[in-house]
């Protein structure tokens, strides 16, 4: 990416002032993200410019419609009680044709304002930050609790359909496109053995035992902005996968990422475990906000949601490894395999400690 191209794209979104420079933001696995700095009226103004991965998001126009509708809805809710929404919800810019995106020969682009004095954390040991991230995703749910679920486009069909994720996995193993399947027989066996537990909630939803609500579907802690001084939560980021889904999956994916003792791609399996203090901190934040809106089945399956999301994500990494790294961006050849092994170790630890996990949830439901 060069400066002229970035400047040209920002111009398409009506950014005025003197272009200064850009930085690449590297923590996502799917889209390409750039933070761009301008000077205007003597002040530094910064923006987030993103190129959407249209291999993953096949219908980016519909995705941007979801995002603009959902952000407008949240903004109106926040403003309705007299608060300022400026730092609490993302603000996307329109291109000159009035759309919240711009397309050219290089791809599909969008631009949002960088929220003042905010920070993100790729990982953190600060339990206050983790609790705040729980509150942020809980409030996100709450703001959208009366949003018409049926009006949302399905950004990625069958995203958390674990039955289909398993079917795709078995097909990939059979196809063995990369020729790698023979080298990961243990992992294939271990993931296969987790199919029953990982498909339980999906089957409950299909039987009408768990409701579909508006969910975020990518609740990693680096998708929350915090005030850089107080560490209070501000806006929730990465609304690409906002879709109808299960509350337990939003809870669970956050736990998978935030309450691991290690990073998502740790190679040393002996270090990987559920960090129960981090688990409790997130649970305290999330459950305190959503508890009154949960059914008994939803309450009972929050901890199972964490196991489900950990197995599913690991299975997706392993599938992509066997397919030849087509979906997730990788920094080295075995990256997806390391990620898959890490999720497997974490899921096994969670399964062994499922009762302990449920007790923590119950403590905050009272
Ligand atoms: C992807 O790129 P990022 O970090 O927003 C993926 C999530 C996974 C996550 C694993 C659209 O998210 O589902 O949980 O990687 N997003 C999509 O880190 O597939
Ligand atoms: Mg994402």
- Overall tally of structural domains: 2
Q: Count every helix, treating DSSP H or I runs of 4 or more residues as helices.
A: 12
Bound compounds, each kind once, are:
2-acetamido-2-deoxy-1-O-phosphono-alpha-D-glucopyranose, magnesium ion
How many distinct beta strands?
10
Topology as H/E string? Answer: HEEEHEEEHHHHEEEEHHHHHH
Q: Residue share in helices?
A: 40-55%
Which strands sit side by side, in order, in the main sheet? 1-2-3-5-4
CATH superfamily placement of the largest domain: Aminoglycoside phosphotransferase (APH), C-terminal lobe
Unreliable sequence segments: none
Largest sheet: 5 strands, antiparallel
In the CATH hierarchy, the third-tier topology of the largest domain is known as: Aminoglycoside 3'-phosphotransferase, Chain: A, domain 2
Indicate the radius of gyration in whole angstroms: 20 Å
* CATH class category of the largest domain: Alpha Beta
As a percent range, the share of strand residues is 5-15%
Give the overall shape, derived from the CA principal axes.
globular
CATH architecture of the largest domain: Alpha-Beta Complex
Report the mean per-residue pLDDT as an integer: 96
Distance between the termini: 52 Å
Characterize the structure shown:
- Helices cover 46% and strands 14% of the residues.
- The protein has 366 residues and is an alpha+beta fold.
- It has 2 domains: 114 residues, Phosphorylase Kinase, domain 1 (2-Layer Sandwich), CATH 3.30.200; 239 residues, Aminoglycoside phosphotransferase (APH), C-terminal lobe (Aminoglycoside 3'-phosphotransferase, Chain: A, domain 2, Alpha-Beta Complex), CATH 3.90.1200.10.
- Strands 1-2-3-5-4 form a 5-stranded antiparallel β-sheet, covered by helices on one side. It has a 3-stranded antiparallel β-sheet with strand order 6-8-9, covered by helices on one side. Strands 7-10 form a two-stranded antiparallel sheet.
- α7 packs antiparallel against α8.
- The longest helix is centred in the last third of the chain and has 22 residues.
- It is globular, with a radius of gyration of 20 Å.
- The termini are far apart.
- The model has no long low-confidence stretch (mean pLDDT 96).
- 2-acetamido-2-deoxy-1-O-phosphono-alpha-D-glucopyranose binds next to loops.
């Amino acid at each position: 990416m060069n400066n002229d191209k970035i400047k040209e794209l920002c111009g398409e979104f009506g950014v005025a002032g003197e272009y200064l420079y850009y930085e690449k933001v590297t923590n996502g696995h799917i889209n390409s993200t750039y933070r761009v700095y301008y000077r205007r009226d003597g002040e530094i103004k910064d923006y987030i410019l993103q190129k959407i991965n249209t291999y993953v998001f096949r219908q980016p126009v519909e995705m941007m419609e979801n995002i603009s509708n959902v952000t407008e809805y949240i903004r109106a809710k926040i403003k309705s009680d007299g608060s300022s929404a400026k730092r609490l919800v993302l603000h996307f810019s329109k291109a000159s044709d009035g759309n919240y995106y711009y397309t050219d020969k290089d791809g599909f682009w969008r631009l949002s304002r960088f929220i003042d004095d905010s920070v993100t954390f790729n990982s953190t040991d600060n339990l206050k930050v983790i609790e705040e991230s729980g509150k942020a995703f809980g409030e996100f749910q709450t703001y959208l609790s009366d949003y018409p679920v049926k009006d949302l486009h399905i950004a990625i069909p069958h995203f958390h359909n674990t039955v289909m994720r398993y079917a795709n996995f078995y097909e990939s193993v059979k196809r063995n496109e990369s020729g790698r399947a023979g080298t990961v027989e243990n992992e294939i066996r271990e993931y296969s053995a987790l199919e029953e537990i990982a498909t339980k909630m999906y089957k409950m939803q299909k039987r009408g035992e768990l409701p579909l609500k508006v969910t975020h579907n990518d609740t990693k802690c680096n998708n929350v902005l915090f005030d850089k001084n107080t560490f209070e939560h501000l806006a929730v980021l990465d609304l690409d996968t906002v879709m109808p889904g299960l509350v337990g999956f939003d809870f669970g994916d956050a736990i998978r990422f935030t309450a691991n003792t290690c990073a998502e791609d740790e190679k040393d399996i002996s270090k990987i475990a559920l960090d129960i203090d981090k688990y409790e901190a997130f649970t305290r934040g999330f459950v305190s906000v959503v508890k009154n809106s949960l059914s008994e089945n939803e309450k009972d399956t929050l901890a199972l949601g964490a196991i489900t999301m950990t197995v599913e994500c690991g299975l997706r990494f392993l599938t992509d490894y066997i397919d030849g790294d087509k979906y997730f961006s990788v920094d080295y050849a075995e990256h997806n395999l390391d990620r898959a092994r890490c999720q497997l170790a974490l899921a096994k630890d969670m399964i062994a400690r499922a009762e302990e996990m449920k007790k923590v949830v119950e403590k905050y439901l009272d």
